Design the sequence.
């Protein structure tokens, strides 16, 4: 009996050790393997002995004496109790090993599911970030297009306003008017820069457009006591330069810097007449030796 008990305990320890190792290495398949080993062990030791001749065939030799048969009969229940206890321990070991394996498999499944969920959340977060980036780029592109459209509209409106202003300053003139304008600009601003020449032409045009002066260039220029080159006759002796022609043409096309000026003078050349400008007119600005008034 001691041999049988020792054998079962050894088997139990071996199977338990094997179950632990298998569960650590094989996870999902460990419980199946351990269960199969345990079932074989139980079947083998719960059969009619190792040799098939009785429960205790390998435990002790057969005693034929009649006197010992009763003792054997009395001992048989104790052997059955030991065998049942050992089998119960094996079953408990199987249950424990199976529970450990199932717990490990369950933990592994939970870990796998959580990992998958984390990966899905990370992928979803990446998609959302990409969507936001695309939306931001679309908004920036739309804002850029809108800014460009607004800029184009503003420039178009500015050009349109400038064209209207220029058109309003384009006066009707004859060839005589044109020649008179060239000579008076050359005489009054021949030594001035291009802007100075255009300013003198602008004052002549402003007078043509004003109700306070005649309606033609020739009449404005030759009005009494208005321009010194007319009074001293230098208007007839000047030689018109190419720059003066260009400046006059620009003024006739509507280029204007005069701020509505109707008068101009050279203070050094005007002498005592300069005081009349100061008393009766509004000073606007000065440029290249000339002062402009309204």
Sequence:
């Amino acid at each position: 009996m001691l041999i049988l008990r020792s054998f079962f305990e050894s088997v139990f320890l071996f199977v338990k050790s094997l179950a632990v190792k298998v569960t650590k290495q094989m996870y999902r398949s460990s419980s199946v393997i351990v269960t199969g080993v345990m079932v074989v062990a139980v079947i083998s030791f719960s059969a009619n002995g190792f040799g098939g001749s009785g429960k205790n065939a390998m435990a002790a030799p057969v005693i034929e004496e009649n006197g010992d048969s009763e003792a054997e009969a009395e001992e048989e229940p104790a052997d059955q109790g030991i065998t049942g206890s050992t089998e119960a321990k094996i079953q408990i070991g199987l249950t424990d090993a199976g529970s450990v394996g199932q717990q490990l498999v369950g933990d592994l499944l939970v870990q796998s599911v959580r990992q998958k969920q984390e990966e899905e959340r990370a992928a979803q977060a990446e998609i959302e970030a990409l969507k936001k980036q695309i939306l931001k780029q679309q908004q920036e592109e739309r804002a850029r297009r809108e800014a460009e459209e607004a800029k184009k509209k503003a420039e178009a409106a500015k050009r349109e306003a400038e064209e209207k202003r220029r058109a309003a300053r384009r006066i009707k003139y004859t060839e005589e008017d044109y020649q008179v304008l060239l000579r008076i600009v050359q005489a009054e601003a021949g030594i001035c820069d291009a802007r100075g020449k255009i300013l003198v032409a602008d004052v002549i045009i402003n007078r043509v457009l004003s109700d306070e002066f005649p309606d033609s260039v020739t009449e404005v220029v030759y009005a009494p006591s208005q321009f010194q080159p007319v009074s001293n006759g230098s208007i007839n002796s000047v030689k018109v330069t190419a720059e003066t022609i260009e400046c006059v043409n620009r003024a006739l096309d509507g280029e204007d810097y005069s701020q509505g000026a109707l008068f101009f003078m050279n203070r050094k050349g005007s002498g005592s007449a300069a005081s009349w400008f100061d008393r009766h007119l509004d000073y606007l600005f000065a440029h290249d030796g000339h002062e402009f008034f309204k």
In short: The longest helix spans residues 66-169.
